[in-house]
Amino acid sequence: MINLLDFDLPGLAAYCETLGEKRFRATQLFRWIHQKGAADFAAMTDLAKSLREKLAGKAEIRDLPVLSEHVSADGTVKWLFDVGGGNAVESVFIPEDDRGTLCVSSQAGCAVGCRFCSTGHQGFSRNLSTGEILAQLWHAEHSLRQRLGTGSERVITNVVMMGMGEPLQNYSALIPALKVMLDDHGYGLSRRRVTVSTSGVVPMIERLREDCPVALAVSLHAPVDALRDDLVPINRKYPIAELMAACQSYLHAAPRDFITFEYCMLDGVNDTDAHAQALLALVQGRAGAPRVPCKFNLIPFNPFPQSGLKRSPRERVTAFAKVLQDAGVVTTIRKTRGDDIDAACGQLAGEVQDRTRVVERFSQRAPLRIMALRETGHA
Ligand code: SF4
């Protein structure tokens, strides 16, 4: 069966042509799938009957089975999706007053192996397909609309490719997925509201600038190569000076005039005032790399046993932020959301890492959950 979630609009048009249908039919079909959340061709009433008949039995809109779904007291929703072979990926919806953000996964596991990331400790299983990346958005958007009773009004206004995986190491699946998010016949999100977060895959940052420039976040976590080599091992291949040059170049095409640097605060490792000063020297072009207009997002570390790392005390994070802010660099401290459901970044991956445990834990609950969602038409 062909999974129609694997196609961007030109891809769907090409598929319709193989069925002997006019390309414009693809736009109708695309809108039914992404804007109305339809999974049943029979429900697509204004679609030519001939096309509906051809699609039935040949194609499908393939949702991801839900292993678990938890709703936090603060409205954060976390899904754990089964992607087969004992692998699961997470997506998290974070509601705020003026936006609804979905954090999406791009891979089952991750090959980069950042020291502070429980997904990295899990190792790499496989890339997700375009359909599996988009199914996270399709499922979240349309199930949230039903739950919140918003009708056809959009719930998810922002997407961050910041879940499990390094999106730029799954480039060929990522780009069509981004194009569907941006397409006015799809989710219609502005480029400023779709963010790709990377650990620093320099050649792919350059390709993203050409192919589909969206907002860019970079997991920096250290101001100098010696430390970053240890925390973010891909730095040994693409050191900081190359990364900064790629960031500066990216800004020529980016929808925003700054790069967001993510910085996980690790007690006694990268969180001193001297580290903050070194970061300033780096982004202001005083450390041998080009100047990069930027914002910093300081992330409280979520400790997990194998890391051997500790979360920086709150006062240290605040003092670190002040050094950056006093120098005129916009700096935020990430709020922890969904604490009651372990939805903060990386926490779920620790459970996924032990797949036996995950399967055991969810095997009894999953059928109930999937049944409940089937009743709403989204499984
Ligand atoms: S932080 Fe991102 S790139 Fe690094 S190991 Fe975790 S998922 Fe991979």
Q: What report would you give on this structure?
A:
- Helix content is 38%, strand content 19%.
- With 379 residues, it is of the alpha/beta class.
- It has 2 domains: 2-60, Orthogonal Bundle (DNA polymerase, domain 1), CATH 1.10.150; 66-362, Aldolase class I (TIM Barrel, Alpha-Beta Barrel).
- The strands form 3 sheets. It has a 10-stranded mixed β-sheet, with helices on both faces. A two-stranded parallel sheet has the order 1-2.
- Strand 13 (294-300), helix 11 and strand 14 form a beta-alpha-beta unit.
- Helix 7 packs parallel to helix 9 and helix 10 (273-283) packs parallel to helix 11.
- The two termini are 17 Å apart.
- It binds iron/sulfur cluster (SF4).
- Iron/sulfur cluster (SF4) binds at residues 110, 112-114, 117, 119-120, 164-166, 199, 219.
CATH class of the largest domain: Alpha Beta
Please tell me the CATH architecture of the largest domain by its name. Alpha-Beta Barrel
Tell me the β content. 15-25%
The overall strand count is 14
Order of helices and strands: EHHHEEEEEEHEHEHEHEHHEHEHEHHH
> For the terminal residues, how far apart are their CA atoms?
17 Å
- Helix-strand makeup class: alpha/beta
What do we call the CATH topology of the largest domain?
Answer: TIM Barrel
Give the overall shape, derived from the CA principal axes: elongated
Instruction: State the strand order across the main sheet.
Output: 3-4-5-6-9-10-11-12-13-14
Largest pleated sheet: 10 strands, mixed
Number of helices: 14
Q: Rg to the nearest angstrom?
A: 21 Å
Cofactor: [4Fe-4S] cluster
Domain Radical SAM core: 96-340
Organism: Vitreoscilla filiformis
Keywords: 4Fe-4S, Cytoplasm, Disulfide bond, Iron, Iron-sulfur, Metal-binding, Methyltransferase, rRNA processing, S-adenosyl-L-methionine, Transferase, tRNA processing
